[in-house]
Amino acid sequence: MDFDINLLSQYSTIPFTIYGTLLFLFVLFWLLSRRSHARCTKAPLPPEAGGAWPLIGHLHLLGGSQPPHVTLGNMVDKYGPIFTLRLGVHRALVVSNSELAKECFTINDKAFASRPKHVAFDVLAYNFSMFGLSPYGPYWRYIRKIATMEVLSNHRIEMLKHVMESEVKAAMKDSYDFWVATEKSGNKKAVTEMKKWFGDITLNVLFKTVIGKRFVGKGCGGDEEENEKIRKALRDFFDLSGSFAVSDAVPFLRWFDLDGQEKKMKKTAKELDDFIQVSLEEHKRNRNGNNGKHDFMDVLLSTVDDEGFDGRDADTMIKATCLALILAGTDTTSGTLTWTLSLLLNNPEVLKKAKHELDTQIDREKMALESDLTKLEYLEAIIKETLRLYPPSPLNLPHESMEDCTIGGYHVPAGTRLLTNISKLQQDSSLYSNPLEFIPERFLMSHKDIDVKGKHFELIPFGSGRRMCPGISFGLQLMKMTLATLLQGFEIVTLDGGPTNMDEQSGLTNIKASPLKVTLKPCLSAQVYG
Q1: The domain 67-529 is classified under which CATH number: 1.10.630.10, 1.10.1740.10, 3.40.50.1220, 3.40.440.10?
Q2: Potential cystine with 134: which of 128, 221, 366, 468 (Cβ 3.0-4.6 Å)?
Q3: How far is residue 431's CA from residue 82's CA, in Å, rounded to a whole number?
Q4: pLDDT value of position 25
Q5: pLDDT (tens digit, 9 = 90+) per residue, 432-489?
């Protein structure tokens, strides 16, 4: 077959022509945008970080081996606590101190009440139908109200405390039985991976609350292989949602899926949808035969109109909301518990004080109950200090401004994305002495009146304002109960008796990169474990 060399040469230049045209249009758009904003306001724009590349802006700075919040935190020394990045065609505002965060989530709270339309939020969240990831508007207000009243209110948490207590006790009994069996077999150590241990408790509580059945163990209704598939899909959701995709930076390249991220997202989305669809069908079949017992999916089935709301069909709304609650509660709770135990193992004097408080405040012949938790002030201080050093979402979930506003004396145009570097903010030496050290006592003395519920901007691990995490009380209750019962019931040591690695894994949430393997040796009488 003969080839026309000239024709081949002509076609070979097409990709470069396309790229050049796109680059020209991008630069033209950026220049016109800056000139337009300069004409419209006398207030200056925030300083822009250096090192931007054509087309992708600063995206390359956030794709390295260290987590983005660390990279952005290191930039504060050079650019100050407020600066902007260009993530492709989008401008992102990065704030890193408490005063600026307070401006964002009080005076300008409504301006920043929306979410950016990331590809991950589209593909993984049913076209922005998970209420934590949906734009500000009627749909978000409608679903958030239902979730807050039916699952996350103080009244509902009180009703659910028996679920928390029973799942924690079941995990303790399993660990006790595992230790006994290991001793009888002659093995030297009963090794437990605590990230999974905490994760299973959290998943069981949330699955029981949301869809009426446990995730693992007796009564879960699934095999271990299927459970591992679901567990991986849940983990992939956070990893993919927290990654910076090329198509987010340059939307008109989405069709090409150059980095393959959207393909991975679609696979994970299908796996999660297949799982929750089965549960939805079961609930529809059993609506009239559940003996008056209602989980959250039952509530949604009776609350959401069959015709849907705001352009979304009822099934999509129900599946998205149930998955949102499971996802939001699982990773943040189990991740914080893992960091807390890691810090305690690396600080044996703090661990000793925590166990002393438990021994003096709780009867050693019974495990901690929900009613005991208010007595455990030092344990509460330990959890606060963990959340200060390792906030569940170090950059907060991204916000997007719906209107022009002013932050720190700078003009912030509508459409600007907001990244709040909570990790950097909570390690500010002007707020905390020895900010990188684990000192729970600070929350019993100098910072004793500070809580984590979004009102004190020195400590906002769950965000603040109208888009803050609505499940704070639920998560704190489960964390306190799990940690109190674990520390009371077992002597815990690392496999080599030394400190545990504290490297962080990048993603939408902050989890420990390496496993946390320990031995759990019972320290109460056998009958306490049930």
Answers
A1: 1.10.630.10
A2: 128
A3: 17
A4: 53
A5: 999 999 999 999 999 999 999 999 999 999 999 999 999 999 999 999 999 999 999 9
